[in-house]
Amino acid sequence: MDLSQTRQAPVEYQYVHRRAGHVMVAYQKRLYVWGGYMELPHSQAYTFMTSSKSSYHSAIDVWVFDPLLNMWTRKMSRGDIPQQLSGSCAAVHDDHMYMFGGWANIASDNMENNLNFLWRLQLPTLTWTLLAPNGTPPFPCDKAACWVHNNRFFVFGGFGPARSSSQMEDVGVNFVRDDVYYSGWIDQLVYYDIENNEWVWPRTKGVKPSPRAAHAADVCGDKVYIFGGRFKNARMNELHCLNLRNWTWSGNLMDDTLQDIPVGRSWHTFKFVSENKAVLYGGFNSTEQVLNDIWVLDVRSKKWCKTLNCRASSRLWHTAAVAHPGEITFYGGIQNNLLDNTRPKDHAEEMLVLRFSPPCLKRLTIEAICEAGEMLRSQWKVLPQILQHILAVRLSPDNFS
């Protein structure tokens, strides 16, 4: 394994990397980032009309990272552009990103901060569509987990406003209200049938996970694995699996008798990097510590392995995606206690790349030439034009990734 990180951006571009609560997906070997918010420097925290210490990112902007060029590009989206949001969840199906829910920066008279809208972003044209599916929609929430399987976009869990017990019973959902706030945790499992444009609430068997939020989930074959999340005052280290063919829950797969397992957490990432291996990184534990540990789960043996040779920064509420086989990228997040309102928050501004297998020869060659810098520029003329262009972009001072 090899853990690398991009160089830090010049000051004028650093706001791009000050981002948490955003979404990031991989599409055609590029990474697409949208939304989220930015914690303001302490000196700027009270310079606006309100006493807010954060600023939401533009809803029009979609930032695209090309690993081959090692460059970010800001693009303008169009169509039914969503509100400024944090805590939404998103996944890719064919040429579209589907995005659900989130916390709206500004609530209106007839709309709460938590949303249950479903948007579709056509990635080639960056055109948004606000969908209006048939059926009973999910309950409004943020910090849910989502995934795509068999032409279906799934949503599980989340944190949102209370609803009547009759509404919950109709779709077989449990809701546990927070002791302080009107909102609470939910265990909703619902999918959007992409072909038939409708919400469906499947009936499942087995031991369903408890309500939770700020958990993470990813698909491996016909199964989805869900790790961690917060429920009441606990940040859990439970690992659950749902068979998406027979709708059977596994129950908690974690063996508490083993000492070498991840601690409970929320606001982490959990992503498959190969057919059988998932990577867990970072998050926020029950003692309000920001974590920097990296674990690899082999789903065949259900065994965890902590990576000891990778030095990663502490971060929470970041994102992870796999744009190239055997390579997982982590982006954004906060480096210190998000719940401590007495101290300014530090963003994790460097992108981390964890490689489990060597990249292709083309990428290795490009990276080797870039390390040599200007020493080999006189010899570029023997290379194909496309490679000359890639090298010129990579070594340009305007490349701020």
Automatic annotation (TrEMBL):
<protein>
    <recommendedName>
        <fullName>Kelch domain-containing protein 2</fullName>
    </recommendedName>
</protein>
<keyword id="KW-0677">Repeat</keyword>
<dbReference type="Pfam" id="PF24681">
    <property type="entry name" value="Kelch_KLHDC2_KLHL20_DRC7"/>
</dbReference>
<dbReference type="InterPro" id="IPR015915">
    <property type="entry name" value="Kelch-typ_b-propeller"/>
</dbReference>
<keyword id="KW-0880">Kelch repeat</keyword>
